[in-house]
Design brief:
Blueprint: H1 4-24, E1 30-32, E2 35-37, H2 46-51, H3 54-86, H4 93-128, H5 140-172
Antiparallel strand pairs: 1-2
Helix pairs in contact: 1-3, 3-4, 4-5
Length: about 170
């Protein structure tokens, strides 16, 4: 089974995520001709990002980092699964574990990204004092991703049960 192309895309995705994360939390702006490219963290206006102090950007990055790290771990487990598929280790306990951890890590990363905005707002509020406005956003893509992760988790349970039945049948022969 040739999984090289998908594995390459996976590592490109991880690299792009890391670069976008750094660009979103630094004051770097790039210009391509007359066009300016501004990257910000979720829910932050580009002008507000430029007005942030380095401490505020550090707090924003620290709040956003757990979701990125958990997602990276999940994608790494997906890479290990694809490597097992390449070796034709399709329904092994190890492959099932990789798929389960990918689904769980992706679900956790989605949950952390949902909690990122209110947590960041509380952190910024604590830094400047005063009254806080906390906003929590949940969009249809996040809900669909959580549903797909739960479905993958269910599939791993089915794979595990199928593996158990296959081993039980082999013992009768």
């Amino acid at each position: 089974m040739n999984t090289g192309f998908v594995r390459t895309l996976l590592w490109v995705c991880i690299g792009v995520q890391a670069v976008l994360f750094v660009l979103a939390w630094t004051d770097f702006e790039s210009a391509i001709g007359a066009m300016t490219v501004q990257l910000t963290g979720s829910g932050i206006d580009p002008a507000a990002k430029l007005a942030m102090s380095p401490a505020q950007r550090a707090v924003g990055a620290a709040v956003a980092l757990p979701a990125l790290l958990v997602l990276t771990y999940g994608l790494w487990r997906l890479d290990r699964l694809l490597l097992n598929f390449h070796r034709l280790d399709l329904f092994t306990a190890e492959s099932i574990g990789h798929l389960r951890m990918f689904a769980g890590a992706t679900l956790l990363a989605t949950g952390l990204s949902i909690l990122e905005l209110p947590t960041r707002a509380l952190g910024f509020c604590a830094m400047r004092g005063g009254q806080c406005e906390v906003v929590m956003k949940l969009n249809s893509e996040q809900m669909m991703l959580m549903l797909v992760c739960a479905l993958f988790y269910l599939i791993t349970r089915l794979m595990q049960e199928g593996r158990r039945l296959a081993e039980e049948n082999e013992s009768f022969i």
